[in-house]
Amino acid sequence: MQISSLSTTAVVIPCYRAARTIRAVIAEVPAEITRIYCVNDASDDNLAEVLDALSQDDRRVQVLTHAVNGGVGAATVTGYRAAIEGGAQIIVKLDSDGQMDPRLIPALIEPILRGEADYVKGNRFFDIQSVQKMPKMRLIGNAGLSFLSKLSSGLWHLFDPTNGFTAIHAEVAAILPLDKLHKRYFFESDMLFRLGTVRAAVCDVPMEAVYGDEKSNLSEMDALLKFPGLHLRNLGKRVIYNYFLRDFSTASLSLLAGVVLLMGGGLFGIAHWIESARTGIPATAGTVMLSAFPVLIGVQLLLNFLGYDVTASQRPALYPQIQRVRVLRARKAPPQIEGSTDESAAAEPVKRQR
Which class is domain 6-242? Predict the structure, then answer.
């Protein structure tokens, strides 16, 4: 499938409290891009007036407005849907705070244009000089979240999961359950999880982030308390979807046997350790081996599963063969007309074929 140029690319910008920065962001979007969807997520500043003026000055700007604040995820999904309906082939998501350079969009979408990826995201950790400029708390938090995201998404080759500078092929976005994506700041990580479940090809593009005097709306404490639980939930879902419902392989067997042996050996050893402590009689060498051997084999099987999972994260692009994962929906039967005969009902499909 050949993708023509930037003219088939749409930009989605979720906007909240961005009246000071949005004009400069839009001004840097390449002129070849003809559609920019700005989603006003019920911002409580004068963003509505700024966007209205921008839409009159720049014909590319289309303003979508939420009556109630839904979060960055909900705003992005609104923009995705508008871009898909508008016929875009590639959808770029850009934050409104000015931390991303829109002039990098051609480089961001290049892997999709070459047919190498379905989803591309920025990576602020690739360049050492850029990392040194990053606030220390943000650096530590992103490192921890990156590991959790690798577990939950199965995309082990990625880093910087909360990066909001992304591009996706519209046909891949159309098969994702957009209604189920997290509505707020877990959106980017949840997106990676959903892409992992459909086995889409995802890659990083090194980029430099710009840190000014803007204040992030994401609370570090909120991310610390909520994100780990959400990642663990997604990990469980991904393992069940990809290794037991949609497929069953030697990796599935390794996981099952590894968990059973590790837990069985561990519980057996703990029970006998407690008994030895209570009676004062040391456990025999055979008892120790009966506990240690299953634990060692279980760990080895889990490491085999992990190796398989890491290898499976590298895959070809999905969108050239999108029909492989597009669900065929049954058509609803037409309502029966009262009093119609079986003969006329049988003749109806023949009429449609002519």
Answer: alpha beta
Q: What is the spatial order of strands in the sheet that 61-65 belongs to? A: 61-65, 35-40, 9-15, 90-93, 166-169, 119-123, 202-206
CA triple 88-167-224, angle to 5 deg: 135
pTM recorded for the entire structure: 0.85
Range 239-273 burial, b when 16+ CB lie within 10 A, else e: beebbeeeeeeebbebbebbeebbeebeebbeebe
Of 43, 50, 46, nearest to 67 (Cα)?
Answer: 43
Q: What is the pLDDT of residues 314-326, one digit of tens each?
A: 888 998 888 777 7
Query: Token match 């430099």: residue?
Result: 208
Q: How confident is the model over 102-159, as pLDDT tens digits?
A: 999 999 999 999 999 999 999 988 877 777 777 777 777 778 889 999 999 999 999 9
Max Cα-Cα span within the chain = 90
Distance CA 141, CA 220 (A): 8
